[in-house]
Amino acid sequence: MEILIAVITGFLLDLVFGDPKWLPHPVRLIGFLISKGEIFIRTVLPKSERYELAGGAVLVAFITITSLAVPFWILYFAGSINTYLKIAVDSLFCYQILATKSLKTESMRVYYPLKNNDISNARKFLSWIVGRDTQNLTREGIMKATVETIAENTSDGVIAPLLFIVIGGAPLGFFYKAVNTLDSMIGYKNDKYLYFGRFAAKLDDAVNFFPAIISAYIMIAASFITGLDWKNAYRIYKRDRRNHSSPNSAKTESVCAGALNVQLAGDAYYFGKLVKKQTIGDSNRSIQIEDILVTNRLMYTTATIAVIVLCSIRLAIGLA
Questions:
Q1: Global model pTM greater than 0.70
Q2: pLDDT tens digit string along 227-244?
Q3: Domain of 221, in residue numbers
């Protein structure tokens, strides 16, 4: 029962405390290692497409193996001292792996200035959580981008890491967070990272493939529970789940767009360049600022269902 206790405790701690800035976070350490590792590899390797591909693969291997091994050995030594100490450390790790409350907190940083017609600060806080350029976004564009990032990160930041920790505890959870962080830092299709970040991007696509599908179906169930248009959520999911350059990102976005009866995605600027993107959902109505609150409620409900279902499955098949 150790892993299940750690998962449930970590989930509850995340709901209560989120990600306080004063608490050292392992994912920030992972990000630091990625940054320093990139600098070192680019310094020692010749500049060519082949070496950039190889260097990026080496960085991915080092970061993922380290992120898996370090918590494994910490938990091993904690367990050799005391079982309760191991459970406590594992619970703390699981808490830091999940990002349910922090996702809501960061989206609400956009919501409040937007509510007060402070477009400048809304754009600034939005830039902290999205990859696109935000300096020229309209009010509607800000609302859409905020809803999109909550929907997408319901999978990346909540359900996928939850699935990994239910299967393999905190070590496997940190492996997932390492893959996700690598993709967010170097997995871009621009001149700098087209080759160096390719392995990171492909690995992220692979490890998120099934979690994204699971997240989408759980979100459809959450749409029903929260009184949203779950039938349309399913319809738009089946129709638009591939309307993204990433094989996974449109899955929960399409469910959310259908549940809200709004249209998301579309063209956006990245690093000053217009990127043509397909739309997701139908514009049955204009997006409203309160849709940010509704999407957060949908995300919380999805997370709660996922904890109950995934932990029950693990218990039922005797892995606990």
A1: yes
A2: 999 999 999 999 999 988
A3: 2-316
